[in-house]
Amino acid sequence: MNTENSFQAEIDKNPMEYNIFHFASKELSHSAFWAWILRCSDARDPYLAGPRRIADRLIKEIKATPPKSPITVTREFPIKIGKTGGRLDVCVEVEVKGKKEIVIVIENKVKAIPYEKQIQDYRQAVGEKAVIALISTSFDEDMKGRMPCFHLGVAELLEIIRPDKDSHPFLKDYFLWLQNE
Questions:
Q1: Exposed, middle or buried: residue 55 (CB in 10 Å: 0-12, 13-18, 19+)?
Q2: Sequential DSSP letters for 89-150
Q3: How far is CA 48 from the centre of its chain?
Q4: 104 within 8 A of 21, measured Cβ to Cβ
């Protein structure tokens, strides 16, 4: 039997066993994936066309203004909150008049319940112009209505990815992994 066909048969039999997102913490996987997607928002390489279209749909879904190139995407972005400080899971910055400005913030909540104060602290730290979006696999519809930011659950994320899930191996893996959340 051809080795390539044998490996493909093994993947087809148990796709999660070989899924890259299976090997990292859930929060790290979400942060890394969405940081990569947002970074692809200004990519011109045809290989990244699917991720770029997903970035466009995400940006539209959270009602953000598409960031002007070049952009900087950072994970674990440090911010000042009170005496201790904090960090943003994913942060998109653009340069405006020679100064970096935060335009999109993604906060992941995988197992923890989000709390309104955290989002308010982020708003104070990043300013009113930035769009804050909460990606969560752990809260119910009632909680979503009380959060002072955009919120995306598993169903919304799957719909954003679905049209391009087969255009890149990472997209296919994330989509499959997310379906198993």
A1: buried
A2: EEEEEEEETTEEEEEEEEEEESSSPP-HHHHHHHHHHH-SSSEEEEEESS--HHHHHH-SSE
A3: 16
A4: no
Per-residue pLDDT at 61:
92
Reported pTM? 0.86
Contact between residue 156 and residue 61 where contact means Cβ atoms under 8 Å apart: yes
pLDDT in tens, 150-178: 888 888 999 999 999 999 999 999 999 88
Nearest CA to 81 out of 107, 99, 58 is that of 107
Q: Closest Cα to residue 85, out of 77, 97, 95? A: 77
Nearest in space to 74 (alpha carbons), one of 45, 46, 109, 102? 102
Residue type at 169 in one-letter notation = P
Chain centre to alpha carbon of residue 22: 16
Q: How far is CA 90 from CA 14, 38, 47, 61, in A?
A: 31, 9, 23, 17
> Token match 């995306």: residue?
152
Tokens 């296919």 belong to which residue? 172
Residue with tokens 């992994």: 177
DSSP code of residue 70: S
Q: What is residue 66's DSSP assignment?
A: P
Which amino acid is present at 63?
K
